[in-house]
Amino acid sequence: MSNEVVRDVIVHDMCLRDGMHAKKEQISTEQMRTVAAALDKAGVPIIQVSHGAGLGGNSLQHGFAPHANEEYWDAVAPVLTRAKMSVLLIPGLGTMNELRSAYEHGVRAVHVATHCTEADTSPQHIACARELGMDTAGFLMMAHLNTTAGLVEEAKKMESYGAQTVYVTDSAGYMIPENVVEIVTALRNELKPETEIGFHGHNNLGMGTVNSIEAVRAGATRIDASVAGLGAGAGNTPLEGFVAVCERVGIKTGCDLFALMDMAEDIIFPMMDHIVRVDRSSLTLGFAGVYSTFLLHANRLGEKYGIPPRDILMELGRKKMIGGQEDMIEDTALTMLKERQAIQAGA
């Protein structure tokens, strides 16, 4: 009898990478082991493990984690019996040498991530991943800032470089179901049949689960999510909620729903520094189309300069700022402060 798990969609947990954003990069190796073992036991096939910004992310700009990525991979690898580890690599932030190190430490899958208009920064890194024999995905971030035709063009580039999967990445949690269906359908019609399509959503508008379900119905076969939604902004698509809806509508994930429910209550919620949910600031991220990882920056700077974080986030959305421009958030807040002080002085 075959032990192969039947799946219509491959779910990919983000707790130990995107969740690092929500934890201000402070996850211990022991917590990594506990979460990874529970995910593996629940039948989750791929688990992303790294600094929140991926390879090369351990920095002043993105925040320092208590351990190097190699220490996290060495902590997680021994507890995995079925799942494989993945990483995020943003060319220019992470390097191919770091990717090779990840492989040596047991990582077997990678998201090679670029802004949604910059796929041409990724060919060397995608080629390197394929040479290593890794499960290789192109990851088009802030996808709402490109047209559907533009995303198809960028996805075709990644496919031509060797990506086996191309992701539509709703980094801002801005999309509504009709956006997701239009984009995934276009990609499914234009990419090679063997190229898989993935969807990575954030829950800032409360659309994470429904957007992920609609992505699958439109042709996506890979969905990123995280247990209890642990991730940036209002979190990723909550994995247990997604799996529950999949069971209701007949989509096979191969995951143990009750194990994921228990894991959310017993392991993930107690880990949270704050309950990751749709609140005033995270809802603003989705409404204004702002990169989800900017949430904690806006909250911190809002307190520092006495400016409502919602105002800062709306300004970042107006400027269409993207990942990698974290150092400009404080400049924006300072400019807003000076403008407000000038208005008060002239009143």
Automatic annotation (TrEMBL):
<dbReference type="InterPro" id="IPR035685">
    <property type="entry name" value="DRE_TIM_HOA"/>
</dbReference>
<feature type="active site" description="Proton acceptor">
    <location>
        <position position="21"/>
    </location>
</feature>
<dbReference type="InterPro" id="IPR050073">
    <property type="entry name" value="2-IPM_HCS-like"/>
</dbReference>
<feature type="binding site">
    <location>
        <position position="18"/>
    </location>
    <ligand>
        <name>Mn(2+)</name>
    </ligand>
</feature>
<feature type="binding site">
    <location>
        <position position="200"/>
    </location>
    <ligand>
        <name>Mn(2+)</name>
    </ligand>
</feature>
<feature type="binding site">
    <location>
        <begin position="17"/>
        <end position="18"/>
    </location>
    <ligand>
        <name>substrate</name>
    </ligand>
</feature>
<keyword id="KW-0058">Aromatic hydrocarbons catabolism</keyword>
<dbReference type="Pfam" id="PF00682">
    <property type="entry name" value="HMGL-like"/>
</dbReference>
<keyword id="KW-0479">Metal-binding</keyword>
<dbReference type="Pfam" id="PF07836">
    <property type="entry name" value="DmpG_comm"/>
</dbReference>
<feature type="binding site">
    <location>
        <position position="171"/>
    </location>
    <ligand>
        <name>substrate</name>
    </ligand>
</feature>
<feature type="site" description="Transition state stabilizer">
    <location>
        <position position="17"/>
    </location>
</feature>
<dbReference type="InterPro" id="IPR013785">
    <property type="entry name" value="Aldolase_TIM"/>
</dbReference>
<dbReference type="GO" id="GO:0003852">
    <property type="term" value="F:2-isopropylmalate synthase activity"/>
</dbReference>
<dbReference type="GO" id="GO:0030145">
    <property type="term" value="F:manganese ion binding"/>
</dbReference>
<protein>
    <recommendedName>
        <fullName>4-hydroxy-2-oxovalerate aldolase</fullName>
        <ecNumber>4.1.3.39</ecNumber>
    </recommendedName>
</protein>
<dbReference type="GO" id="GO:0009098">
    <property type="term" value="P:L-leucine biosynthetic process"/>
</dbReference>
<keyword id="KW-0456">Lyase</keyword>
<keyword id="KW-0464">Manganese</keyword>
<dbReference type="GO" id="GO:0008701">
    <property type="term" value="F:4-hydroxy-2-oxovalerate aldolase activity"/>
</dbReference>
<feature type="binding site">
    <location>
        <position position="291"/>
    </location>
    <ligand>
        <name>substrate</name>
    </ligand>
</feature>
<feature type="binding site">
    <location>
        <position position="200"/>
    </location>
    <ligand>
        <name>substrate</name>
    </ligand>
</feature>
<dbReference type="InterPro" id="IPR017629">
    <property type="entry name" value="4OH_2_O-val_aldolase"/>
</dbReference>
<dbReference type="InterPro" id="IPR000891">
    <property type="entry name" value="PYR_CT"/>
</dbReference>
<dbReference type="InterPro" id="IPR012425">
    <property type="entry name" value="DmpG_comm"/>
</dbReference>
<feature type="binding site">
    <location>
        <position position="202"/>
    </location>
    <ligand>
        <name>Mn(2+)</name>
    </ligand>
</feature>
<comment type="similarity">
    <text>Belongs to the 4-hydroxy-2-oxovalerate aldolase family.</text>
</comment>
